[in-house]
Amino acid sequence: MVMNSEVFITDGHWRKSLAAVRALGKQGIRVTVGESTRLATAAFSRYCHKALVYPSPLCRPAEFVDFLYLRLSSHSYQMLLPMEDETLDLISRYHSDFSELTYLPIVPFEKLRLARRKDKVLLLARKLGIPIPRTWFIGDTKQLDELKAGFPYPVVIKPKMSSGAVGVAYPENPVELMEQYHAIHRQFPFPMIQEMIPRQGPGYGASILMDEQGEVKASFVHKRLREYPVTGGASTLRESVRYDDIRDMAVALLKALDWFGVAMVEFKLDPRDGLPKLMEINPRFWGSLSLAIAAGVNFPYLLYCMSRGENLKPIEHYQIGIKSRWLLPGDLLHFIYNPRRSRLVPDFFNFWDASTVYDIVSIKDPLPALARVLTPLTFIYDPDMQQRLKKRKHDG
């Protein structure tokens, strides 16, 4: 089926943007890809109809908004998909303006901000009966003197607002706690302190699509198998699984937030009691989007169908046991820095497993892999990409 409508996708550098471009392009939908640099991975895809360079949303936010508004005003797009935090923030702040120009499947800024508030999300989850790690909410730094000796070290210090890996520390004793907490507090006032879930507990992500009425239109759960950094970061290998308890908790949380659009709710299984504990909400598309699409849940295309007013039956079933791999450079770095890498051989070098798809590498769409190899050059000359690298999220 060939579509004539066109979709605008931002943040063409990232894997998830490439996954969305391919998912829509394979349905015959024309896709425009935007990024602050010409060397953008998704822009090299055969499914990219047009590539645009826009002002940096990090370094020149007002100019980015003006550019995007002018583009949408002068060119007809069926839908706009903001993919990264910075573009999502800016577009959500002008939600009503952009919604007049195209279909915008995101929540307004205040709802987005609430979903990013880890402290409020954790308190809401606890109210809903969703398990969370033991968490200490600090309202006065004097509390630390009373609490520091009783924490179950090592603990995690986290900003209350999602900030990627910035402002996160893992003190192992009271002295480190006081030093690291005060250092983070200067940039992110009154961060939380949270118990560490043992590393052997696997991570899970529940990806959900909700319509304007708050009804679930699609759900998908994946399990993390490998990640980089090895001690905890973005997943480099993950697998589609069925885990109804996690799916149901994610839906309950998003319904309580009156959510619309996509979100991925992250959990970590606590091996001490066997319970999945809520970690955070990722209120946008996630890095492992290619896995959901390969398993049969095409989130970008479902949003496109919603934009056309189609009555979608909820998608709850998908292929179990499908794996997706972020080979370049994620999984290669995992192998290099994994002290137990010998345990990965020879399976690690099985690049032709029929049940595994790749985030970037594709025989049918090869140029994005080449672009990805070259994109580290953008971190040398592009200040926008330099700042994004510093704020990189443990995504998907």
Structural class call reads alpha/beta
Helix content: 25-40%
Q: Report the end-to-end length measured between terminal Cα atoms.
A: 31 Å
CATH C-level of the domain at 6-113: Alpha Beta
| Beta-strand residue percentage | 15-25%
Q: Which architecture of the domain at 6-113 would the CATH scheme give at its second level?
A: 3-Layer(aba) Sandwich
If you consult CATH, what is the topology of the domain at 6-113? Rossmann fold
Q: Strand sequence of the main sheet, in spatial order?
A: 12-11-8-9-10-13-14
Rg, rounded, reads 21 Å
Kindly describe this structure.
Helices cover 35% and strands 20% of the residues. The chain is α/β, with parallel strands linked by helices and 396 residues long. The strands form 3 sheets. A 7-stranded mixed sheet has the order 12-11-8-9-10-13-14, with helices on both faces. The chain has a 4-stranded parallel sheet with strand order 3-2-1-4, with helices on one face. A 3-stranded antiparallel sheet has the order 5-7-6, with helices on one face. β11 and β12 (275-282) form a beta hairpin. The chain is globular. The mean pLDDT is 94.
